[in-house]
Amino acid sequence: MTQAEIKLSSLLLCEHFGEIVEKVGTQLIRMGGQTLWMIAHNTGMSLDQVRKALCVLIQHNLVMFQQQKRGLVEYEAQRSRVLRILRYPRYIYTAKTLYSDTGELIVEELLLNGKMTMSAVVKKVADRLTETMEDGKTMDYSEVSTTFTCLADTHFVQRCPLPPEGSESTETLPSPAPTLVCNEKDMYAVPKLNLIGKGKRKHSDNTKEDGERAGKRSKKDTESKEPPPDSGIYWQVNIDRFHQHFRDQAIVSAVANRMDQTSSEIVRTMLRMSEVTTSSNAPYTQPLSSNEIFRLLPTGYNISKQILDQYLTLLADDPLEFVGKSGDSGGGMYVINLHKALASLATATLESIVQER
């Protein structure tokens, strides 16, 4: 990491979390993995301050930990993750364009808090939306829950890793650093919550309601002690999925500039069909048949199957090779060469910079 990147990371940590967290985070970025005692010694801070700072950094996925062979726990900064704080506004804006204000606030709350349960996010977002509504209108928990489910289905939010079940035993001493795991099948599985209620406003002009609320406060406090149904299931923003979305947008825009709007819409449809089934690091998408692409084209594009096949052939024969043909079954099997597309975009960017100079 360059000195400029270290300085930028330090400024970001200080702005978002304060000086204490900034000192601990910068120390880990500069020196690499260190134990709790080493961090306290090198920063001149107390163990309690270091512990609290590490809790904040771990909560926001900026520091990871692992147990050494000697039994000590070593903490290491996620350097690239710290720099991605700069992109938080873009993640939030993307969620707004895809899932309206509700999606925007869900992603914003998760980014602000690092990890949260679904029930906590739904209630907090419903309250915030109710605050912006006209008097007498409220936001139902069910509506926010539906949007949260859509974000999980499209992999923009995901479950956080947890200690494996049965790892704690009364016969043996607990490990100082539990190994966190996450089942891929459950990573985007939304728990079944029967959230019934509406968002509440912080300030009410009705003093009578305030008095009734104060009178029933003790009863509500006893009810709130019961754990929520999704207790222990925490969620976080899937940053890689947002980057995949940005990559897909760049590819679609490049195809539109090179050919036409119809070609870009065909590529957009292929990317949308593969966005959940294809890894963000995969060199190409899953093979898609011409018949599948034709069925899922937007209704606004009234093109025949024959014209679609002609467009796919033109895309496959293009020298940039954004689209490749991988078989003849199902009317022809096609893939998008993601790595070649990104390489072409990078080359075009460099060439334009050279021409400008």
TrEMBL record:
GO terms for molecular function: single-stranded DNA binding. Component of the RNA polymerase III (Pol III) complex consisting of 17 subunits. Residues 193-233 are annotated as: Disordered. Keywords: DNA-directed RNA polymerase, Nucleus, Transcription. The gene is POLR3C. Residues 147-345 form the RNA polymerase III Rpc82 C -terminal domain. Residues 204-228 have a biased composition (Basic and acidic residues). DNA-dependent RNA polymerase catalyzes the transcription of DNA into RNA using the four ribonucleoside triphosphates as substrates. Specific core component of RNA polymerase III which synthesizes small RNAs, such as 5S rRNA and tRNAs. One of its GO terms (biological process) is DNA-templated transcription. Belongs to the eukaryotic RPC3/POLR3C RNA polymerase subunit family. Pfam families: HTH_9, RNA_pol_Rpc82. This is DNA-directed RNA polymerase III subunit RPC3. One of its GO terms (cellular component) is RNA polymerase III complex.
